[in-house]
Amino acid sequence: MDKLLIEGGVPLVGEVAISGAKNAALPILCASLLCGDTLRLSNIPHLNDISTMLRLIGQMGVVVTMDGNEALTLDSSGLNNPFAPYDMVKTMRASILVLGPLLARCGEARVSLPGGCAIGARPVDQHIKGLQAMGAEITVEGGYVHATASRLRGTRIVTDMVTVTGTENLMMAAVLADGETVIENAAREPEVVDLANCLVSMGAQISGAGTDCIRIQGVDKLHGAAHSVMPDRIETGTYLCAAAATHGNVRLTRTSAVWLDSVVDKLRETGCEIDCQADAIVLKAPQRLKAVSIRTAPYPAFPTDMQAQFMAINCVAEGSAVIRETIFENRFMHAVELIRLGADIRIDANNALVTGVPRLDGATVMATDLRASASLVIAGLVAQGETLIERIYHLDRGYERIEEKLSRLGARVRRVR
Ligand code: EPZ
Fold it and tell me: Is the CB of 47 under 6 A from ligand 1?
């Protein structure tokens, strides 16, 4: 298994381009199942999760053609196998996003239940409840969701909690349903809006995406379209945190701060100077960071996907801060690894009290999930000496060419087999 070897203590300086958003690209790839036409996508990130999703829809009958470096075309006219097998789904929970489109397009779907996940149980009951409300017959047996629906009917759905992929699944199911669907308590994440924009370009009738009430007027069929995936706001936030922690000075291009207000505000509270430009962000870090408390919550509040990265900043900032994780029940696994590097962190249920220390010292640590691994990379960039991060396949799921991008910013990092 690959490992990442980092020699810390070097400020990140320079310019790097941000890739397309993983969490927008994944549902948008599933949207291709909805139309028997060609969907042309650009700004697709080269990530393991994207490759997994392409393999998954490919074995369903979608013809995937790579088109240059970051573009591809998807032709689902030959879709003939509405089946998502366990061995593919178990590696990527987002596979559940094929359920709504397959039901809407084919009237049936057999999708493996996503396995457990390091950060929490992450059930999909809201996805199932919403589809049943739209008239789907759904049974769960043998680890699979078996779903059929002659034609889904529009209805009003109120999800029990804000769920990003739940909102996305139900929105995709609704675009071909008979009548109007209203999703209340909908997720407002920018990736939901990007998916809605892509669906509208395919002929869907959707209003309210980005608010907590999304209205979808069903249509008989969709047509092909071209869509460029939005920049990855979490990759953006991760590099901003790395630059802050290393007292660096970076310019991130092909991205925007419009989706990161809560993260930019918190970084400014640590003492960073941030200049938000049209399609770039410049961050200049202070010599000494101030510790800042955060509380994760659904968009537009502070994103849970940035919690681990901010914990790394607080490990080396001045003072103490509390990090409260309200979305997932087990999203502090990076804390014990950070403690191995010398951090002072005390966990109490879903609160982490972090007290800044004068320095971290390199050690061997283990990645446990995607954003936890990013937190360990940031800590390794700050720690004195060498940090070896194991199981970095977690990183490769969500960060394109991370060692190349970090090296371009002056980091001393390399991948060891
Ligand atoms: C999406 O996951 C993201 N993944 C996650 O990013 C992100 O952390 C999460 O949203 C929250 O923002 C993708 O978009 C592919 P949820 P998702 O449904 O949709 C509970 C990353 O690092 N819930 O919004 O699976 C759930 O357990 C990943 O890129 C139910 O109980 O998250 C959680 O506590 C990690 N039943 C809360 O709701 C359901 O049916 C929010 O989960 C659905 C969710």
Answer: no
